[in-house]
Amino acid sequence: MTIEIGVVGPHDLVDDVAATCEEQPGVTARRLPYDHESQASAIVEAHGGQVEAWLFTGVVPYALAREANVLHRPAAFVDYTGATLLQAAVRLLCDGHDVTRASIDTVTSADVGATFGEAGLSMDRIRSLPYRSGLTSDDLIAFHRRQRKAGAQVAVTCVSSVYEALRHEMPAFRLAPSNHSVRTALRQLLLHATSQAQEDAQIALGLARLPGDDGLLREVATLGGTLARFTPDTYLIVTTRGPLHDATGGFTALPMLRRLADRHDTVQIGFGLGRSAAEAENLARRALSRARRVGPATAVLSLRGDTDIVLESSTPAPQPAEVNLTVIAQRVGLSVPTLLRLREVRTAAGTEPLTSREVADQLKVQQRTARRMLHRLELAGLAERTGQLAAGTSGRPLTLYRLTL
Length: 405
What we know:
Layout: E1 3-10, H1 11-21, E2 27-34, H2 40-47, E3 53-56, H3 59-67, E4 75-77, H4 83-94, E5 102-106, H5 109-118, E6 127-130, H6 137-149, E7 154-157, H7 160-166, E8 172-174, H8 179-200, E9 203-209, H9 216-222, E10 226-231, E11 234-240, H10 241-247, H11 255-261, E12 267-274, H12 277-294, E13 297-303, E14 307-312, H13 322-332, H14 336-349, E15 354-355, H15 356-363, H16 367-379, E16 383-389, E17 398-403
Parallel strand pairs: 1-2, 1-3, 3-4, 5-6, 5-7, 7-8, 12-13
Antiparallel strand pairs: 9-11, 9-12, 10-11, 13-14, 15-17, 16-17
Helix pairs in contact: 2-3, 6-7, 15-16
């Protein structure tokens, strides 16, 4: 398998990161440098059709592209904790800096503590400012200046624009990803991309119930699929997961339903995703059955694991509060009380992302149940992945989610 990865980052990091990626057989890297991290999302949008996956040289450009909702391919970022942070500490010590009196941005205090603790370095006078949504380079610069006045001896930053602003007024050090960190991020990205490719090749079968095929053939063509009559009033749509995912905006809405509903009084569509044609057909039958119960113009997607997503419905627009939750419950296959509890968990967390373990603890359910809930919300566009939490855990890293329901 050959894969082209778009490497996004500042000019002086992109070449080194791309070269490390190209050491992996079957990987080619498209170098996409920027002058300022704020340009990351525009670069991704401009080159989205030219690469199969994205690797960012740090969490900041990745987060900015994620927040701009332009990442439609597998994406990862090089983590600046672990080997990268330890490498920086060694270099600072060699240059005569007191690394125990430093201000560090983007990296969490837990990650700094884990790395410095293993090296036997004190954390008492180290101050860190972890990256969060909405944090700007000006905020990071102001943080380092405050810590300088409070006694910090060196500013350690992950952001090139912050380093350029500070290096003439105080001792400053810019973190650069170690080869080990790049290879670790690349392995994760390739696993994600391979999994995505396998998922995109999954068979997607649709059963469309409507009085005639007026306009249906043209709509099916946009899915890259084929159309055949299944029963006198039902048509069979054959495509794969990838085109269906793109056409539905990540399984959130089905624009073709509204266009067909303008031509026909009744349009009910059920899609099923499966590893075989038989499984996909069974799921499509289940989806169509549910669509017929929901309303005269409805599309439902059924996935393995008893997950049904209402892509669009003619149900009257809901009123606020619990009526909204009723519609959401229909879409994601969770009960209204469960959604209410999830809202409470989200409110309590504020702007901080949550792991499946934290959700499981709050809801008093098993962690695999919490993972399934978060996965359903993610498919419905009501939760987004913001990264992984590895520090302080053993085994598989925990995925961080931000709830938006």
